[in-house]
Amino acid sequence: MKELSQEEWREQVEKDGNAVILDVRTKEEVDEGYIPEAKNLDIYKGREFVEEIEKLDKSKNYYVYCRSGARSAQACTLMDQMGFNKTFNLIGGFSQWQGPKSE
């Protein structure tokens, strides 16, 4: 896992043709807004979350975020342990996001 600042995240995602944006917040949080093109997998769903992560393509680059950066760091660590090559955590999470948003 690599920790990325808000600016590093935006720049890297724009240039990365192999990027997948992963939102690990709850559905209620996502309903309040999200980063465009993000795939939502709620980390609080435990085993179901792990099962969904197992279905993902390990060769992709995963840009993971939550509300503040703590849950996404946990998700990145878990994904690294599961054999994912490149995971990136958004420092400060969605609460500090200044980029494009969808609602």
Automatic annotation (TrEMBL):
<dbReference type="Pfam" id="PF00581">
    <property type="entry name" value="Rhodanese"/>
</dbReference>
<feature type="domain" description="Rhodanese">
    <location>
        <begin position="15"/>
        <end position="103"/>
    </location>
</feature>
<protein>
    <submittedName>
        <fullName>Rhodanese-related sulfurtransferase</fullName>
    </submittedName>
</protein>
<dbReference type="InterPro" id="IPR036873">
    <property type="entry name" value="Rhodanese-like_dom_sf"/>
</dbReference>
<dbReference type="GO" id="GO:0016740">
    <property type="term" value="F:transferase activity"/>
</dbReference>
<keyword id="KW-0808">Transferase</keyword>
<dbReference type="InterPro" id="IPR050229">
    <property type="entry name" value="GlpE_sulfurtransferase"/>
</dbReference>
<dbReference type="InterPro" id="IPR001763">
    <property type="entry name" value="Rhodanese-like_dom"/>
</dbReference>
